[in-house]
Amino acid sequence: MPGILTDLRIVEVSAFIAAPLGGMTLAQLGADVIRIDPIGGNIDAARWPLAPGGTSLYWASLNKAKRSVCLALNTPEGQEIAQALIRGAGTLLTNLPAGKWMGYDVLRQAREDLIVLRLTGNPDGSAAIDYTVNCAGGFPLATGPAGVGPVNHVLPAWDIAAGLYLSTGLLAAERARHRTGHGQEVTLSLADVMLASVANLGYIADVQVNNAVRPAMGNDLYGAFGRDFAVAGGRRIMLAAISNRQWRAIGKATGLPDKLAMIGPMMDLDLDTEGGRFEARHAIAAVLEPWFARRTLDEVRAAFDGSGVLWGPYQDFGQLVHEDPRCSMANPLFGEVDQPGVGRIMTNASPLGFSADIRPAAARAPRLGEHTEAVLTGVLGLSSAQYGKLHDSGIVAGPTER
Question: Taking burial as the number of CB atoms within 10 A of a residue's CB, which of 1, 239, 281, 340 is the most buried?
């Protein structure tokens, strides 16, 4: 099924998470994304987790719906082929240093309307990764229990946000090109993604205006009522009340509205405000903890389903896959594919839904170099003999399992 971006071609020269995710986001919407890797694969080609045969599940998961081309990028011949593909597509997405052959000024000499999106670590072009950016952003010191010290989360949040910024930036530049006929270089740094996000959430303003630094407070929800509770059987759930309707639903579903209502007058707090519930969070938890401790997860689910209570169970990745009905083939987000080197697996399409029936189905990732011949002959117009000569001389490579 054709996607909404079916007439857009992008060349991607990248590694790791952010740029591949940005390219995949567009590929899953129908764009023809051609990922170029050096022969043998880039530095992320064998990153964990791995399938039993050694195929990188990480690489396969971040490159779905793309085409893969392998070139000897350390040679002038390989660089020239890459440049021809970039100029033909008119759009480049990369997180690798510009170098002499992949700089915007070099590439645009043959195509004035060229768009280049380039991700760097820091605004000055120096290197950074999610973890080195995250440690400076304040979040690890506000994560976990008080007094524990920095706690890194395992979600590469800045990489994910950067990938989505890249896809948004590319579409914005492409729209400007459609309107004006001009291309441009769009730059984004991982550090600026972090800084923008901290500012967007109000934490920079909180320091400037209130001289306040958000402290670590475990799993309590900052500025409102929300925290985790242990249930019978060893599982834990997350409970939150952002609105007054959700707050009252907790009292009704647990049968504890009168006891919860006593907390406000006792503490001289208005529990119809988020701030009041936050200040009273320990007293609220003391009332609710015995109720949860006496009930299993299934009993909690039965009490809360359809009640308007805002809650969810904590679950590891295995429980997510095996127990959560949303993570199943019943969800149209997913489809089954035969992934080379892995086998038949459930994989996702784009989570975006459009009223028109234009979302492509879930697609597998390519084998490394799977489309080298098809792209060079079909896009650049090389003959089979020309391709064969390049292949035999080690300038290009066909499909491999890695």
Answer: 239
Helix (H, G, I), strand (E, B) or coil at 372: helix
In angstroms, the Cα distances linking 298 to 62, 250, 303, 396 are 35, 17, 9, 57
3-state secondary structure 250-263: HHHHHCCHHHHHHH
Angle (CA) 313-315-321 rounded to 5° is 120
Catalytic residue (one of 105, 159, 206, 316): 159
pLDDT greater than 80 at residue 2: no
Q: Is 53 helix (H, G, I), strand (E, B) or coil?
A: coil
CA atoms within 13 A on the CB side of 361: 7
Catalytic status, residue 159: yes
Q: Give the DSSP letter string of 169-225.
A: HHHHHHHHHHHHS--EEEEEEHHHHHHHHHHHTTHHHHHHHH---PPP-TTPPTTSE
- The domain ranges of the chain are 9-198+331-397, 236-313
Question: Is the Cβ–Cβ distance between 229 and 292 less than 8 Å?
Answer: yes
- Cis preceding linkage at 360, omega within 30: no
Residue 356's pLDDT band, with cuts at 50, 70 and 90, is confident
Q: CB burial class (10 A; 0-12, 13-18, 19+) of residue 98?
A: middle
Record the tokens describing residue 220, joined without a space.
């309590």
Identify the residue whose tokens are 């475990």. 218
Q: What is the CATH number of domain 9-198+331-397?
A: 3.40.50.10540
Has this prediction a pTM greater than 0.90?
Answer: yes
Please measure the distance between the N-terminal and C-terminal CA atoms of the chain and give it in whole angstroms: 28
d(CA 310, CA 306): 10
User: Per residue in 207-221, pLDDT tens?
Assistant: 999 999 999 999 999
Q: Could you give phi then psi for residue 356, rounded to 5 degrees?
A: -80, 150
Q: Nearest-CA neighbor of 217 among 142, 136, 140, 311?
A: 142
CB-based burial of residue 175 (10 Å sphere; 0-12 exposed, 13-18 middle, 19+ buried)? exposed
Question: Among 25-29, 181-185, 343-347, 353-357, where is mean pLDDT lowest?
Answer: 353-357
